[in-house]
Amino acid sequence: MASSHLIHFKPAIPATMASRCLSSHKNLLFLAFLVLSILAARSEAGSIAIYWGQNGNEGSLEDTCSTRNFAYVNIAFLSTFGRGQTPQINLAGHCDPPSGNCAGFSDQIKSCQSQGVKVMLSIGGGAGSYGLDSADDARNVADYLWNNFLGGQSSSRPLGDAVLDGIDFDIERGTMQYWDELARSLANRGQKVYLTAAPQCPFPDAWMGGALNTGLFDYVWVQFYNNLPCQYSSDLTGLSNAWTQWTTSITVSQVFLGLPASPQAAGSGFIPADTLISQVLPVVKQASKYGGVMLWSRAQDNGYSSSIKPSV
Question: CDD domains this protein is in (predicted)?
Fold first, then answer.
């Protein structure tokens, strides 16, 4: 029997359908471009960190968080610790630690956290009595911080039962050793403890250089003030060079540009908001590790954070 061959013809796609397909393809390309643009903008966007606690007239912790200006608040300071000393928190006029009434801040801390703000305890500062004499001393301090401010248990938690998000190292005096051991001991708790630091802009930092080399820190807000060689000046050379060194020389998720919130907040280094927005931020944002701006401090923040926030 002779075989029969059937020839099948595919019907042509109507012109209107082809036009629709082309239009749909263009829409997909546009949507992809839009998504990539949004992601690029987000990667450049930064946050603001601020210090709170050293001026009784700066308003409450809860009010600070309710401004929605800040992603991180550092409660300053645990100013006495280490070397066998009884640790002591100093919150200026906000409360009296010996009487135990600082525990009332627990609800305010929880309120901040419910708004997405990470709240750290800053240890050290420019005054006080602190230091570490040995690796054992560092581990003892880490145990104290864990049990009294973080996820551990203690009957004498100075800020109540709120669990802070982490510890900020603002080490400006005392010893230069064992801060790396303190960082390791805090990081090895089986529960996330954010580690942040506020070194001064000359690189490497005299006190925190070794600790920062551990690669354990999440955020580093470098103090670009009170240091003439690396703070803001008209040609930006010193600041730009120091910023590049910080953002390329340490293993850290994000680096923040630390600034005074007003001319009165520091001896030198204040950058007017319009200058920061037009000249400085476009330079520092080029770094892949750019995280945002840190301000010292809430007491001197008379509208500065609000004016720079859209551009940070």
Answer: GH18_hevamine_XipI_class_III
CATH of domain 48-308: 3.20.20.80
CB-CB neighbours of 286 under 10 Å: 13
Least confident of 25-29, 180-184, 188-192, 291-295: 25-29
Q: Where are the alpha helices (DSSP H) in 163-259?
A: 179-187, 209-212, 237-249
Q: Per residue in 185-220, is it b (16+ CB within 10 Å) or e — as a string?
A: bbbeeeeebbbbbbbbbebebebbebbbebebbbbb
Domain ranges of the chain: 48-308
CB 65 within 8 A of CB 88: no
Residue 187: band (very low, low, confident or very high) from pLDDT cuts 50, 70, 90? very high
State the pairing for strand pair 129-130/72-81: parallel
Q: Which of 44, 58, 62, 172 is catalytic?
A: 172
Catalytic residue check, 44: no
CB 284 within 8 A of CB 46: no
Cis ω before 43 (30° cut-off from 0): no
Length reported for the chain? 312
